[in-house]
Amino acid sequence: MFTSQDRLAPPQVRARAHTATSRTPVVVVASDVISCAGVVSQLRPRPEVLLLDYAEADRAEVAVIIADGIDEATLRTLRALRARGTSALVLVVTQVDDIGLVAAVEHGVAGIIRRAETTADRLIAVIRAADAGEGTIPPDLLGRLLQQVGTVQREVLGPRGLTFTGLTDREVEVLRLVADGFDTAQIADKLCYSQRTIKNILSNLMNRMHLRNRCHAVAYALRNGLI
C-alpha cells in the first residue's frame, strides 16, 4: 500500500520575523532540505505568516508538510505534529492516491495542494483557510474523496448495518452543503441563517463528534451513510 521509505525530517532552514497579531505562526516540515528551503524562501517575505523552527512546532497554528506521497512516513509526521498540539495541517504533495487521500483527512489535514500547482499566493491562501478552520482540497481530489468514502459506506458499513446517528436535521443539511462545496456565506444564504449560526453549527458538531475540520466532518458523515 505504502512504498516510500523516506522519513520526514525537521526543516533545516530558519526564518524569523517580528511577531504581529495578524501573522499566523507556521512551521514547515519537509522530506529534504531543498524542498524545505524552497517553501521557506517563498513564505519568508510574506507578512501573513511567522515562520518557526521545528523545535517550536508546539507554538505553530499551522504546519506545512511537504512530501512526495501520503505514505506511512508522512502519516507518522502528521500524528507527531498533532501530538505536539499543531491545530491545522497543510499538505503539499507530489502524488495522491485514493487511500492516502482518505488517510490524510482522517489524520487531520485541512488543506492539500499538489506541488505542481503550488505558488506562494496559493499556499498563503490555504494556510489562512486552515487557520480559520476551513478545508481546502483541489476539486478533482474532493470528488475522489467523496467516491472513496461512499464506497466504504456501501461495501463495508452498509452490509453490516452500521449507520451514523446523533445529528440534527439542520446539521445534516449544513454538512450536505459543505460537501457540495458551498462556503459559510453561501450556506447561510441558502438556509436563511446568519453566518455566525452556520459557524456555530459546524463548531458544535465537530467538537461533539471529535472531528478535526470540515473535510473530516464530511468524510465521517459520508462513511456512516448520513449524506
Class by alpha and beta content: alpha/beta
User: Which of globular, elongated, flat, extended, rod-shaped describes the shape?
Assistant: globular
* Major sheet attributes: 5 strands, parallel
Mean pLDDT over all positions = 79
Radius of gyration: 18 Å
Assess the beta-strand content as a share of residues.
5-15%
Helix content estimate: 40-55%
Count, helices: 9
- H/E element string? EHEEHEHEHHHHHH
Kindly state the number of beta strands.
5
Biggest sheet: strand arrangement = 2-1-3-4-5
Low-confidence segments, given as residue ranges, are 1-20, 161-165
| Gap between N and C termini | 28 Å
Give a brief rundown of this model:
The protein has 227 residues and is an alpha/beta fold. The protein has helices spanning 33-43, 72-83, 98-106, 120-131, 139-157, 169-179, 184-191, 195-209, 214-223; strands spanning 24-30, 49-52, 62-67, 88-93, 109-114.
Keywords:
alpha/beta; 9 helices; 5 strands; 47% helix; globular
Characterization of the model:
- Helix content is 47%, strand content 13%.
- It is built from 9 helices and 5 strands; from the N terminus they run E-H-E-E-H-E-H-E-H-H-H-H-H-H.
- It has 227 residues and is of the alpha/beta class.
- The longest helix has 19 residues, at 139-157.
- The protein has helices spanning 33-43, 72-83, 98-106, 120-131, 139-157, 169-179, 184-191, 195-209, 214-223, and strands spanning 24-30, 49-52, 62-67, 88-93, 109-114.
- The protein has a 5-stranded parallel sheet, with helices on both faces.
